[in-house]
Design a protein that fits this description.
The protein is of the alpha/beta class. Helix content is 35%, strand content 15%.
Length: 379
C-alpha cells in the first residue's frame, strides 16, 4: 500500500494528575501521575467548535486513521476517518486517545509504578468506564476545547460516548453510539469471566507478575479466541469457513487441527499475544462488566440531564450487543424528548460490523455530523 506523507500521524502523550493532585477513581483509590496516549488529525478551527473525540473498543488504541512513518498498516478505523470520509478530516479535528488501563501508551498495569519502580501488575487499581472518561476530559481541557462537536465510538467506545453525555452534558454537542448497550447482561459478563479465567489459569500469569518473564501467552490467546467468536456471526463464520478442512482431504481422527475455523482462531490468538498485555485485558474487561448506567437510577432519569443530540446505530446480526439492548437507549432518550436518530443496519458481520460496514454507516454519520456542525454554527 503506497503511503502519502499527508497521512502520517504522530502519537502524542499527555501527563497529568501529578502528586499530590492524583486522579481519584470511582473506587475512591487515587492514582498519579497518569499518561494518556493520543493522536489528532485534521485542523481545529478558530472557534474550536469542530472537535470530535473518537473512542476505541476493548483492544483498540489511539491510532484511528492514517499511517505511522515506516508502517503500511493504517489506523483501526481508517475506512471511516479521513479526507472526504464519514469523519471528514477536511472539516473536523479528530482526537482519539488510548484509554486508561490499556497497554498502548496510556497508564495501565504494565506501566511503571512510581512507588516501586516496577510495573504495577495487580497493584494497578481497578478502573471503570467513568474513570476513562474523566481522564479523557483532562485531555480535552489540555487541548483548550470547551465543547466537543461529537463523541463517537462503537462497542466499549459506545459505552464511553454514553458516559460522556451523562457525566459532562454541557461539554458534548452530539453523541454517536454504535453497537453498545447501557449495561452488561449476565451473558456478556459470562463471556468475559471465561476469558479472564483463561488468562488467570495460565501458570505463566503468576498472579499478574510476569513482566520481564514468560508472558501468559496460552491464556491470553484463549481469551482472544473466545472474544473473537463473539465478534462474528453464525452466518459470517459459515460463509467464511463452513466445514472446510485445512490442506487435507479427510479428517485426521486425532487432536490436531482439522478445520479452517480452528486454524483461524489459533492464528488470531497467537498474533494477539504479540501486541496486547494480559493484565490490561483483565482490567478493561472488568470495566465493561462493571458498567451500568442504571446502577443508581432508572435510565429515563439518568438521561434527563443530557444536552447532546444522538445518533444510535445497531446491527441485525450483532449477538454480543444485540439491537434490543441498543433500542433501550433510544426509548429512554425519546422519553426525555432528546433529539435522537436510530438506524438498525442489515449486516451479516456480527459485532465486527461497526468496523467493516463502511457503506452502511458512512452516509448516515456524515449527514448527522453535517447537521450538528450547521446547528453549532447557527448556535
Amino acid at each position: 500500500m503506497e503511503q502519502n506523507p499527508v497521512d502520517y500521524v504522530e502519537t502524542q502523550y499527555f501527563t497529568f494528575a501529578e502528586p499530590p493532585n492524583e486522579l481519584v477513581l470511582k473506587s475512591g483509590v487515587k492514582i498519579g501521575p497518569v499518561t494518556l496516549a493520543y493522536e489528532t488529525t485534521g485542523k481545529l478551527n478558530a472557534a474550536k467548535s469542530n472537535a470530535i473525540l473518537i473512542l476505541h473498543a476493548l483492544t483498540g488504541d489511539a491510532h484511528v486513521t492514517g499511517f505511522h512513518p515506516g508502517s503500511t498498516k493504517p489506523g483501526w478505523w481508517d475506512n471511516m476517518v479521513g479526507p472526504g470520509k464519514a469523519f471528514d478530516t477536511d472539516k473536523y479535528f479528530i482526537i482519539c486517545s488510548n484509554v486508561l488501563g490499556s497497554c498502548k501508551g496510556s497508564t495501565g498495569p504494565a506501566s511503571i509504578n512510581p512507588n516501586t519502580g516496577k510495573p504495577y501488575g495487580l497493584a494497578f487499581p481497578v478502573i471503570s468506564i467513568r474513570d476513562m472518561v474523566v481522564a479523557q476530559r483532562q485531555l480535552i481541557d489540555h487541548l483548550g476545547i470547551d465543547q466537543l462537536l461529537c463523541v463517537a465510538g462503537g462497542s466499549m467506545g459506545g459505552f464511553q460516548a454514553l458516559k460522556w453525555s451523562v457525566l459532562y452534558p454541557e461539554r458534548v454537542r452530539s453523541s454517536i453510539v454504535i453497537a453498545a448497550g447501557v449495561r452488561h447482561s449476565a451473558q456478556q459478563i459470562a463471556f468475559n469471566v471465561v476469558a479472564r479465567q483463561a488468562i488467570m489459569s495460565d501458570p505463566d500469569w503468576n498472579g499478574g507478575d510476569y513482566y520481564g518473564k514468560t508472558i501468559p501467552a496460552r491464556g491470553l490467546a484463549l481469551a482472544r479466541m473466545m472474544g473473537h467468536i463473539t465478534y462474528m456471526s453464525d452466518k459470517s463464520m459459515q460463509e467464511k469457513f463452513g466445514r472446510k478442512l485445512i490442506s487435507k482431504e479427510r479428517l485426521g481422527y486425532d487432536f490436531s487441527l482439522d478445520f479452517e475455523v480452528e486454524n483461524y482462531l489459533k492464528y488470531r490468538g497467537d498474533s494477539f499475544v504479540q501486541r496486547f498485555d494480559a493484565n490490561s485485558w483483565l482490567y478493561l474487561s472488568k470495566a465493561l462488566d462493571y458498567f451500568d448506567l442504571t446502577a443508581e437510577d432508572d435510565l429515563v432519569k439518568v438521561f434527563e440531564t443530557v444536552q447532546s443530540s444522538f445518533l444510535v446505530i445497531a446491527f441485525t446480526s450483532d449477538w454480543l450487543y444485540p439491537p434490543y439492548q441498543t433500542k433501550e437507549i433510544v426509548k429512554a432518550l425519546k422519553t426525555n424528548d432528546v433529539d435522537v436518530s436510530f438506524i438498525e443496519i442489515q449486516s451479516d458481520y456480527g459485532h465486527d460490523a461497526f468496523l467493516v460496514e463502511v457503506e452502511g454507516q458512512a452516509q448516515i454519520i456524515s449527514h448527522f455530523l453535517n447537521r450538528m456542525q450547521g446547528d453549532s454554527a447557527r448556535g
